[in-house]
Specification:
Elements lengths: L2 H8 L3 H30 L7 H13 L4 H8 L3 H13 L3 E6 L2 E9 L1 H23 L3 H17 L28
Antiparallel strand pairs: 1-2
Length: 183
Amino acid sequence: MAAHEQASEERPSAQGRDDVDAVTRAVLTASRLLVAVSARSLAAFEDRVTLPQFRLLVVLATHGDAKLVSLAERLGVNPSTAMRMLDRLIVAGLAERQINPANRRETALRVTPEGLQLVEDVTAGRRREVASIVERLAPEQRSALIEALTAFAAAGGEPDVSGGGADAYPLGWAPDPAAPQDG
């Protein structure tokens, strides 16, 4: 293949670049909407939990009991930061520490039933608001959105959960098979 042919294949066409820019703008606009939906769903509980604390509850609810270090890794924070967030959630009755009876040096961190209920309530609020928005779309737009968002998620490395039912991963986070299992 000639050098000029190879170079033209590597560079996106002007039309392709315009498409990428248009799609990027559309995704960013949709992202703003989804962030607003998320913020509104948590607003009713803002007197009890902050967004970072809610993320911690979601990780515990999704992945189950955890040790502090693995919890901090999943959140992308330092263990001391995770501990401060956890301490506040424990005071609020939304999370708890429990000594591992098999190894008394280990402490398991878990979401309480009240914390799990809060996660479920926030998630249900998000689901209702998103469903309300989706209902305003024509059926053919819904089909196109499913196809586009499924492809977008796959391109971003999100696992497909379409066959798992509506509640397979209600928070949108599948358990990470590569993550160390806490016990």
